[in-house]
Amino acid sequence: MKIKTAKSAGFCFGVKNAVDQAIKVTSKKNTHPVFCLGEIVHNSHVVNLLKRSGLSIITNLDQIKDNNGTIILSAHGVPPRILNKAKQKNLEIVNTTCPMVKKVQNLAVSLNEKNYKVVLIGDKSHPEVKGVVEWGNNNVTVVSNISDAETLPFNQPIGIISQTTFSTELFKQIINFIKQKAQAEVNIHNTICNATEQRQKETEELSKTTDTMFIIGGKNSANTKRLYEIGLKYCKASFWVTNEKEVTQEMLKEAKIIGITAGASTPSVIIKAVTNKIMELSNE
Ligand code: F3S
Prior knowledge:
alpha/beta; 10 helices; 18% strand; binds FE3-S4 cluster
């Protein structure tokens, strides 16, 4: 049995920066509480580790009662409304918004100011997307597939941006459709980040040359979901696992060449644990 691990598996620079900053803040002797608005990354291992160091996860800034504490904002970014509220509450802000997400937020602002119909290609329920919509003053239409794109006003200039972790393949399909239908200017900004693009490309190459694929990452991680979809397309025996406990002998029954990849929020310790479990079960 052979195991091939994707070079791009695991933390991207944006997630690494967010986690490093959260570790730095929680490991200080804090005289006030430290909060994180939502999960710092979509990985329960990382989140639980930080919770044990004293980090409290909140879903709303109103949960901070006495306007005292540090608030960590995740790599996905937040709407301007939240930033303003954190400032009004006099909280110490640790903003870990990834620079690639900041670029999408800035484009939403400028395209809206230039009167484009702003189209954001992404998942409607993703926190990054929800934030970018508000940066564009809520004049942003989120398109997740071709049928969403069918309803766009094609007689107006359209400015297009994308969620940083969206599927490159689906992005291209939607763009081609819009270009065919457009009767006015289409201003396209492919803002899928390099880390995502490379990870998706490597997953495709791996799944074409292996008989079994393991995609490691949280079940709420959008970028891991994409990798799983790519894996399944080229390799029927593709499995999405969150940790080593989910790897079973049954999954390895046909395995001769195994591919391993992982989402941007999966720590290397989990990738190692899954790899070890695969090797252990293969030797039984
Ligand atoms: Fe940033 Fe891309 Fe990672 S947007 S957080 S580098 S997946």
